[in-house]
Amino acid sequence: MPNAKTHIQAGLLITGITSLGFGLRFRTFNPFKLVLSLGLSVVASRLPDILEPATSPNHRSFFHSFIFGLIVGGLSYYTWRHLQDELTRNEADRVTTFKALILEIVFIVLLCFSVHLVLDAFTKRSLPLI
Ligand SMILES: [Zn+2]
User: Fold this and answer.
1) Which long-range contacts (CB under 8 A, 24 or more apart) does 126-130 make?
2) Structural domain spans, the chain
3) Which of 9, 49, 71, 103 pairs with 120 at a CA distance of 20 to 30 A?
4) Rounded distance from Cα 130 to ligand 1 centre (Å)
C-alpha cells in the first residue's frame, strides 16, 4: 500500500518531468518556478488523504472513488490542453503569462491528485466506484 512518502515521491517525479517538459518545450524554463512546482506537488500529492485521512481501513470514500478520479483526470486533461494553447500563443515572447501560471498550478494539483488515485487503485483494497 503506498504510504505518504510514496505518494510524495510519485508527485515530485511527475511534476518534475511535466514542468521540465513544458519549460524546455516552450522555452520558459525557470528554476525558481520548478522549485515552487515541486513544493506544490508535495501538498497536492497528499490531498486525497488530507481530505479523507487514513484513520480506518475504509477511509476511502468519494474523493478516493473511480468516479471522482475520472472527473479529476478529465479536468486535468482539459487544463493541460488550455495550458498548451496558452504557452503556444506566447511562445515567441518566451514569457509565462498570469493565465499560464494559474493553469500550470491547477494542472499540477489535478495531476498529482490523479496520480495519487492511480497508485491507490493498484492496492489490494483498490478504490470504491462512488
Ligand atoms: Zn489515498
Assistant:
1) 127/60, 127/64, 127/65, 127/66, 127/69, 128/60, 128/61, 128/64, 128/65, 128/66, 129/65, 129/66, 129/67, 130/62, 130/65, 130/66, 130/67
2) 4-121
3) 103
4) 15
Distance 73 CA to ligand 1 centre (A): 16
**Per-residue model confidence (pLDDT) at position 65:** 93
Q: How far is the CA of 75 from the centre of ligand 1 (A)?
A: 19
Query: Do residues 109 and 48 lie in contact, with contact meaning Cβ atoms separated by under 8 Å?
Result: no
If you measure from the C-alpha of residue 77 to the centroid of ligand 1, how many angstroms do you get, rounded to a whole number?
21
Handedness of CA 73, 76, 77, 78 (dihedral sign): positive
Residue 88 Cα to ligand 1 middle (Å): 35
Helices (H), the chain: 4-25, 31-44, 47-51, 66-89, 98-121
pLDDT tens readout for residues 60-113 = 889 999 999 999 999 999 999 999 999 888 877 777 788 989 999 999 999 999
Compute the distance from residue 114 Cα to the ligand 1 centre, in Å. 10
The DSSP element (H or E) to which 58 belongs, if any, is none
